[in-house]
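To: structure desk
From: M.T.
Subject: fold request, one chain
Message: Could you run this one when you get a chance? Sequence is below, nothing fancy, just the single chain.
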Amino acid sequence: MQEQIKQIAMRIQVLRDILGISAEQMAEHLSMTVEQYARYEAGGEDFSFSLLYKIANFLGVDFTDLLTGDSPKLHMCCFIKKGEGLAIDRRKAYRYQHLAPTFSNKKAEPFQVRVPYEPDKAGCPERNSHEGQEFDFMLSGKMRILVGESEFIMEAGDCIYYDSGYPHAMEALDGDAEFLAIIMK
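Reply: Done. Structure tokens follow.
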């Protein structure tokens, strides 16, 4: 995992340099200090999904460019077999599978997300925010979702659509939860 973090950090630094964006500009865009940003770019801090998404948008590249170093190339369609999406295990709190990693110029980012049940960490999931809007459709399990100051309990078949610029988080209840997340840019 540490090697993957360093590779992602190196891609970000190279792209930032190519585009003529200073570390100060990047830190300001990400609402963090230059020192905090420098730790990420040095590979000393793991990137959350939200942070990678913000960085990719700011650099004008596809999310998967940062993760894999490969640009998506498909234009007509992208077919993914069950369980074979691009695994994105950025944080222990969530396990993502990108469901269209090879499709170019996406208007939305589709993910299958598994939220492990962690009763010892109940009640205070870490909130994140990112540009765009998000649609989440529950596939299995039961989950608490926090959006801004609102709280919802979701079960299989339930869905929610929200402005993902508001801080949000998910927490599995009574066992693992799984949902489809579609993030619109």
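Reply (cont.): The two ends are 28 Å apart (CA to CA). Let me know if you need anything else for the meeting.
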